[in-house]
Write a structure and sequence with these properties.
binds 2-phosphoglycolic acid, alpha/beta
């Protein structure tokens, strides 16, 4: 199964459901529809209405983050996995570099993953190195640390997806070459197999994926899908990514 996940970040108002309706109707008729899952992560304000609307449709709704506690607490403005689940959310991103840079540490991220899984959310756990780490050949070391400090073999493997998003590629139009990404993906999959056993976990790529760059990535068999930021705000671009991937 492949995944096409659109991360809306700070974008969207109620009428933006039009974009999702177009993606959902394409997905429902697409001849390749059984080969992939399409998911969008709108901001918190839209999760309840969008999750209800798409609950029994093909498109699934996810959250962009969750708080590191189970149910209810006294943390102002925090949204827990339990609260997300209660409004019909099915997936959550955890560990996006935006949130890591705002203070999410490995210890916090581990709590987030634990409570998201406890509440039956599927977790899309994001990892990635920055430009300086890449330049200093620290990519694999960084990724290994990000994975091993948070993921634990006792976690339910079936509900975790990993998204590799090099920070230098997010929103920049710069993407790794197919060869470079293929090598890194192979190494990430090895690390995941060490933690979870031979089946490992699905691995997505994210960072400047659009209808053009997708063509570089479709040959990489270790990549099980894509986390798409900017291009997911347009139904046409998001649909073209899927079309070009299977073309
Ligand atoms: P981008 O963002 O596709 O706009 O580079 C990816 C992400 O941040 O998930």
């Amino acid at each position: 199964m492949k995944y096409f996940i659109g991360n809306w970040k700070m974008f969207g108002v109620p009428k933006s459901i039009k974009i999702l309706n177009k993606i959902n109707s394409f997905n429902s008729k697409d001849q390749n529809r059984n080969k992939y899952k399409a998911i969008i992560t709108p901001p918190y304000t839209l999760l309840e209405s969008f999750s209800k609307y798409f609950y029994n449709k093909r498109l699934s709704i996810g959250s962009q983050n969750c708080y590191q506690k189970d149910k209810f607490s006294s943390n102002t403005a925090a949204i827990s996995p339990f609260m997300l689940k209660s409004v019909g959310v099915k997936y959550t991103l955890i560990g996006h570099s935006d949130n890591r840079s705002e203070g999410d540490t490995d210890i916090i991220l581990k709590e987030k993953v634990k409570y998201a899984l406890k509440n039956n959310l599927k977790v899309v756990f994001c990892i990635g190195e920055n430009k300086i780490e890449k330049k200093n050949n620290k990519t694999i070391k960084v990724l290994k640390k990000q994975l091993s400090k948070v993921l634990n073999k006792r976690f339910n493997r079936k509900n975790i997806i990993v998204a590799y998003e090099p920070i230098w590629s997010i929103g920049t139009g710069k993407v790794p070459s197919a060869e470079e990404l293929g090598n890194i993906a192979l190494k990430i999959k090895r690390i995941l197999k060490k933690i979870f056993g031979k089946e490992g976990l699905p691995l997505l790529y994210g960072g400047s994926v659009d209808d053009k760059s997708i063509k570089n990535f479709k040959k990489i068999k270790e990549i099980d899908g894509f986390l798409i930021g900017g291009a997911s705000k347009s139904s046409k671009k998001f649909i073209d990514i899927i079309k070009n991937y299977y073309r």
